Amino acid sequence: MTTMSAMDRTRSQLAIMIHIASKEMLIQSRYRNKFFSDIFSHFLGVAPILLIAFALSGSAVDGSSISDVTRERTLFILLGYTAFMAFGFGTPIMLYTGMGWGIAEEVYTGTIERNFLAPVHRSLVILGIGGYYVVLYSFHALSLIVVAALLLGDSMTFSGEGLAIAALTVLGLLAFSIGLGLAASGLFLAVKDSSFHVLVVHRPFLLFSGAIFILDVLPRPLKLIALANPVTYGIDAFRGALSDTDTLLNPWIEIGILFAGGAAAFVLGMAAFNYALKRQLRTGDLTRF
Amino acid sequence: MNALVKILKDSITVARFKMLYQFRQRTWLVTASLTGFFMVTPLVLLGETIIGSKGERIQPFFELSGYENYAGFLAVPLVFAFLTNSAYSWIGQAIRGEQQSGTLERTLISMRYPSSLMIGGAMAHLVFLGLFIAIGIASVSLVVDLQLDVNWTSALVVGLLHLYAVYGFAFVLTSLFLWIRDAFIVQQSLSYFIIPVLAGAGFPIIIFPGWLQAVSKAIPFFWAFDLERQAFLTHTPLTEMTTGLIVLISISTGLWFMGFAFFRVTMRRARRTGTLGLY
Question: Is the predicted ipTM greater than 0.90, yes or no?
Answer without folding.
Answer: no
